[in-house]
Design a protein that fits this description.
The structure holds two protein chains of two kinds.
Chain A (H helix, E strand, L loop, with lengths): L1 H32 L5 H16 L1 H6 L8 H23 L6 H40 L4 H9 L3 H34 L1
Helix pairs in contact in A: 1-4, 1-5, 2-4, 4-5, 5-6, 5-7
Chain B lengths: L1 H19 L1 H5 L27 H5 L4 H4 L7 H4 L31 H5 L11 H5 L26 H4 L12 H4 L35 H4 L18 H10 L24 H8 L14
Chain lengths: 189, 288
């Protein structure tokens, strides 16, 4: 059982998370090698815009805008948030400067980790739902009965709700720190 | 309600930190020692939303005074640039850490092309003979790597006198040559030389071999034709004595190719040479 969790959940999470960090380090090395470090500055702008674009999913989900199906937007949300995070990590580099931007980077990493956990929980919830549907069908329930039963099966939905309660404040924390960083840089550049 | 509380707490904590510790939270690093008194006075250098204008630097550092001790009035030439392009600060107490790498692209075009307006021309024989167009050979990123040296830049007198810049190679072959390098080498490439061996002996298909087969020492003026089985000493001796030729030590004196009937010598010199006693010791083949 324990081995199953490690192989199915922990290792894929660590691989994705490490790939993100090493990807950023690799790009940083390339920029230094070709003496084009100035690009890192612009990756900060681009990364911020990319992450902001990923929030279209959140706005759509809350009914503020209506542009596409949640599934497609969720895919974009994951992809854009991850690629934007890599750009911001390259932008931050490994230079030890003010605490504020470092806190922002720290929150970015925590946010990415939280996002990856959410992605895993969602995949697990979908899997549980599929298995439950199959069980109910095999027990002789009609399609209508199965649908009603699943509707009341709120275990998976509750898990996602709980995760969201943590993910949102982390995202807000990141947004606030980033905003203060942008203001301070614009003010004293 | 609980959600709003969390967000409010986060906001208050962060804003409090920024306001209580603005320097630690926002400053990208310590100023260098002489700027220490400005450590908490950001606006002494920075203008809100307008960067770091030169006026704020010049209010203390007068341009004329900066270059007072310098031979070259360098900062005068850089007035169109922002001071922080080179002097970034916030890198620690040591002033050297606050100095960015200088790039020639920051200079205006006139100064960028007039290297001698800042740099002294090197005082050596080579640079005395060339024009002042430094960029014809050097780049602004690396002085030592010669980009495109062209001998046309050397004045005409020195251009034909290679040894005024280059040393004569110290091998036995070049020891015995004249200083007229251009008769074998070109101005664009040292190797390969245009030395014409045919002038001495045509290297046809039977003689297409390593130099060392004939030139067995590093002195290329000496050679031997007895290095291959075709020309044994006894064969050569009998063939030549038969013709009344007693001196056959320097083959290329008469034979300029593999064709043994192609003898190239005027009659009188040939007679003097071939009838000389070959037993007299000859150190070198005197024609090569």
């Amino acid at each position: 059982m324990k081995n199953g969790i490690v192989i199915k959940n922990i290792i894929p999470f660590l691989v994705s998370y490490s790939a993100l960090i090493f990807g950023a380090i690799f790009i940083d090395v390339i920029l230094h090698f070709f003496d084009i470090v100035f690009i890192g500055k612009y990756l900060g702008y681009l990364g911020t815009l990319t992450i902001l674009t990923s929030f279209l999913y959140s706005l759509n989900k809350r009914g503020i805008i209506k542009i596409s199906t949640p599934k497609i937007l969720l895919d974009y949300h994951e992809y854009l948030a991850l690629s934007g995070s890599i750009m911001i990590l390259v932008h931050a580099g490994i230079h030890i400067n003010a605490i504020l931007p470092w806190l922002a980077v720290l929150m970015l990493l925590i946010n990415v980790a939280s996002g990856l956990v959410g992605k895993h929980l969602l995949a697990q919830a979908n899997q549980t739902m599929r298995e439950r549907k199959l069980d109910l069908k095999q027990s002789g329930m009609t399609e209508k009965e199965v649908a009603r039963e699943i509707f009341w099966d709120t275990t998976s939905m509750n898990t996602m709700k709980k995760w969201r309660e943590i993910h949102l404040p982390i995202t807000y924390f990141l947004g606030l720190l980033s905003l203060l960083h942008i203001i301070s840089v614009t003010l004293f550049n | 309600m609980r959600k709003i509380n969390i967000f409010a707490v986060i906001t208050i904590v962060i804003l409090t930190l920024v306001m209580v510790f603005p320097h630690e939270m926002v400053s990208p690093g310590e100023l260098y020692q002489a700027h220490n008194e400005l450590q908490n006075d950001c606006l002494a250098c920075h203008k809100p939303f307008a960067g770091t204008p030169n006026e704020n630097c010049i209010s203390c550092h007068k341009i004329n005074e900066i270059d007072k001790k310098n031979t070259v009035q360098f900062h005068q030439k850089m007035q169109n640039q922002s001071c922080i392009t080179c002097h970034s600060d916030h890198k620690g107490l040591n002033i050297k850490l606050a100095l960015n790498k200088f790039e020639h692209r920051l200079l205006n075009e006139n100064d960028r092309n007039a290297c001698v307006s800042c740099h002294a021309q090197p005082k050596n024989q080579l640079h005395n003979q060339v024009t002042t167009s430094c960029v014809s050979c050097h780049t602004t990123t690396n002085w030592k790597t010669i980009a495109n040296f062209n001998h046309d830049l050397v004045n005409a007198k020195s251009r034909n006198n290679c040894v005024s810049c280059h040393q004569v190679p110290k091998d036995n072959f070049h020891n015995k040559t004249s200083n007229n390098c251009l008769s074998c080498h070109s101005l664009t490439k040292w190797k390969p030389s245009t030395f014409n061996h045919d002038k001495y002996f045509i290297l046809d298909k039977d003689h297409n071999t390593n130099c060392a087969t004939c030139h067995q020492t590093t002195d290329y003026k000496t050679y031997t034709c007895y290095g291959c089985h075709e020309h044994t000493l006894s064969n050569i001796r009998s063939e030549h004595l038969e013709e009344g030729i007693s001196n056959f030590t320097n083959c290329t004196k008469c034979h300029k190719s593999a064709n043994e009937h192609d003898i190239q010598m005027d009659g009188k010199e040939a007679l003097n040479y071939i009838t000389r006693d070959s037993n007299k010791k000859e150190n070198k083949n005197d024609d090569h």
